[in-house]
Design a protein that fits this description.
It holds the Pfam family PAS. It is an enzyme of class 3 (hydrolase). It is a single chain. The strands form 4 sheets. The protein has an 8-stranded mixed β-barrel. The protein has a 5-stranded antiparallel beta sheet with strand order 2-1-5-4-3. Strands 7-8-6-11-12 form a 5-stranded mixed beta sheet, with helices on both faces. The protein has 22 helices and 21 strands. The chain starts with a helix and ends in a 28-residue tail after the last strand. Helix 8 crosses helix 9 and helix 16 packs parallel to helix 18. The protein folds into 4 domains: about 90 residues; about 110 residues, PAS domain (Beta-Lactamase, 2-Layer Sandwich), CATH 3.30.450; about 160 residues, 2-Layer Sandwich (Alpha-Beta Plaits), CATH 3.30.70; about 230 residues, TIM Barrel, CATH 3.20.20.450. With about 650 residues, the protein is an alpha/beta fold.
Length: about 650
């Protein structure tokens, strides 16, 4: 009987009792009005009995109604909770498995099937041993069940196997369910798939510690490994070596052929360096074109031998698509632990050694010494002092004569900057020019030299000296300045020098940094009427097609080729080829670094137009120039 029917029945009894009382009262009054003699006692007793019986039935009915209502409400709440639990069970992203006390699987949720690959039908009645990965021993499972029995729960990371056979990591929570007597009736396992999280962590770790382009360890990971090995080397009282490798003139290739070729070259270099990696070695890319090789248990002799093998390997051509590229490298070597306190000092010393290798002509290696640390400190001091040199007129120009090789008469001069330091005296350009290039002062120095040289040449021309030109070196930084032609025009106007007397020397590598822009710049400079020369020809990467388009007046043969004349067959062949090439393009040729009469004679015999070098005269201040200088028959060493 439903609550509604019970409520209706009780209401009926209540109405019946009321009607009974009312009818009884009406009946008594009617009999009284008609003077009918009636004994009311039996009737009253019956009336009271019926009334109280009816009221009792109503009260008992209400109590039953309330009890049934509470039961139905409790049932409704329970059903609601069951529906909610079922919704959570079905919708949760964690896998859920329910088993009986004998670990036989009774039910799983959809997330379980999605994670493991097993459907409910495939696992029903099975035990969790079906998912064992084989990566845990019996002790692991024994401890898990001991915790579960003692505490009623267990949680931790566990490796299981999917239906596909893939082994993956889970974060699992187990609980036992007991009845009112404390007997275990069921087990519930809730687990999360950690494989995606682990992959994400591995990817983040890779991105943080490996170079994305070449796949080698980056500076961060390399520093961590260097720190560990530095500590081990100190504890084990053994030596190790750090080889810092920098590609020579990589910027020229990167900017002339494009960044894609530069990236391909870096990848190819990484593979070659990786071929030398053995146990106890770490090859890393620190950034740009700088690589490092950390070698455990390596002495000085072994480090030098390894550096030579690396240099020979990198000197072999790289085939990148249709292009065959050649590149060399410089290597700085530091032995540790010695006096190395930390990784930062180790890297600083390696930088100093690398700087020494580059200063020795590149394509070589150099070891770190304490002397290099002092030199680094001096570079910092010189950099600060150089800024003051421009303001305090500490720079001065020396001039080296350029001779017509046919009769050895002076036809022009090259202006060379010198720094007369108030405390250190005359500072070699080899020391301060690289510093000026690093700190950005080279452009200001170039303009100062250009203005001073033009004024000096104007003075010589006005005095009646028969000179054809004054040559001034233009750095790659100033040459890349988009308004160089306007600056030159302004300086010529201020000095009063005719443009035909000024010769600007631009290095081949400066032209190759941006060939198209360089061609436009050369064309604008030539339109001013100045002379143009390509300095250090043969040491860069220019092509004959670009050489034809450069539209310059002269080529300067680098002293590296002149030094071996006339004995070196290779230098002689290159020199003859450059002279012939230049003349076929209607260009004049200047050979620099001439020190002996034999060199001058060889060049003259093969048609070289001009020459300069210590064999004729050293650079001098204007007041000390020997205008009657001829070839010095006593050869001098080239130590400028």
């Amino acid at each position: 009987m439903t609550i509604v029917r019970l409520q209706r029945l009780c209401l009926f009894y209540l109405i019946l009792a009321v009607l009974w009382v009312v009818l009884g009262e009406l009946l008594v009054r009617w009999l009284s009005d008609n003077h009918t003699p009636v004994s009311l006692l039996p009737f009253s007793k019956g009336l009271l009995f019926v009334t109280f019986s009816t009221l009792l039935m109503y009260v008992l009915g209400r109590r039953h109604i309330d009890q049934v209502a509470r039961q139905q409400q409790a049932q409704t709440v329970s059903q609601t909770r069951l529906r909610q639990a079922e919704a959570v069970f079905d919708c949760t992203q964690e896998g859920v498995l329910i088993s009986d006390a004998q670990q036989r699987i009774l039910h799983v949720n959809p997330a379980f099937s999605r994670i493991t690959g097993y459907s409910l039908e495939e696992v029903l009645g099975q035990t969790p041993k079906l998912f064992a990965s084989g990566k845990h021993d019996a002790e692991f499972y024994g401890q898990m069940w001991r915790d579960l029995q003692a505490k009623g729960r267990w949680s931790g990371e566990i490796w299981n196997r999917r239906k596909s056979g893939e082994v993956y990591s889970q974060l699992q929570n187990l609980r036992s369910i007991s009845d009112e007597n404390g007997q275990v009736t069921h087990y519930v396992a809730v687990f999360s798939d950690l494989s995606a999280l682990k992959r994400s962590r591995e990817e983040l770790d890779y991105l943080a510690h490996y170079d994305h382009l070449v796949g080698l360890p980056n500076r961060l990971l390399f520093s961590e490994r260097a720190k560990l090995d530095l500590e081990r080397a100190r504890t084990d009282k053994r030596s190790g070596a750090l080889l810092l490798i920098d590609l020579d003139h990589f910027k020229d290739i990167n900017e002339s052929l494009g960044h894609s070729y530069g990236d391909s070259l870096l990848i190819a270099v990484s593979k070659r360096l990786g071929a030398f990696q053995n146990n106890g070695m770490t090859v890393a890319r620190l950034g740009g074109d700088e690589f490092a090789l950390l070698c455990e248990s390596l002495n000085a002799g072994q480090a030098a031998a390894l550096a030579l093998r690396l240099l020979d390997s990198l000197a072999q051509p790289f085939q990148l698509g249709a292009n065959e590229l050649f590149i060399t490298a410089s290597i700085g070597i530091v032995l540790y632990p010695d006096d190395i306190e930390d990784v930062e000092q180790l890297m600083r010393n390696a930088d100093s050694a690398l700087f020494k290798a580059k200063g020795s002509g590149r394509s070589t290696y150099a070891f770190y010494t304490q002397e290099l640390t002092s030199m680094a400190q001096q570079r910092v001091e010189l950099s600060s002092a150089l800024r003051q040199a421009l303001e305090q007129n500490q720079l001065e120009l020396h001039y080296q004569s350029i001779h017509d090789l046919s009769d050895e008469r002076i036809v022009g001069f090259e202006a060379l900057v010198r720094w007369r330091h108030p405390e250190q005296g005359l500072v070699s350009p080899a020391r301060f020019i690289p510093i000026a290039e690093e700190n950005g002062l080279i452009s200001a120095i170039d303009l100062w030299v250009l203005a001073r040289a033009c004024r000096q040449m104007s003075s010589w021309v006005d005095s009646g000296l028969s000179l054809q030109f004054i040559a001034v070196n233009i750095s790659s930084r100033l040459f890349s300045h988009g308004e160089l032609d306007m600056l030159v025009s302004q300086i010529l106007a201020e000095s009063g020098l005719e443009p035909r007397y000024l010769e600007l020397e631009v290095t081949e590598s400066a032209v190759m940094q941006d060939p198209d822009a360089a061609m436009d710049q050369l064309a604008r400079l030539r339109a001013l009427g100045v002379r143009l020369a390509i300095d250090d020809f043969g040491t860069g990467h220019s092509s004959l097609l670009r050489l034809k388009r450069m539209n310059v007046h002269k080529l300067k043969i680098d002293q590296g080729f002149v030094r071996g004349l006339p004995g070196s067959r290779e230098d002689a062949a290159i020199t003859r080829s450059v002279i012939a090439l230049a003349h076929n393009l209607d260009l004049r040729v200047v050979a620099e670094g001439i020190e002996t009469p034999e060199q001058a004679e060889f060049l003259r015999d093969h048609g070289c137009d001009y020459g300069q070098g210590y064999g004729f005269a050293r650079p001098q201040a204007p007041a000390k120039i020997n205008w009657q200088a001829t070839l010095n028959r006593a050869p001098q060493s080239n130590d400028a």
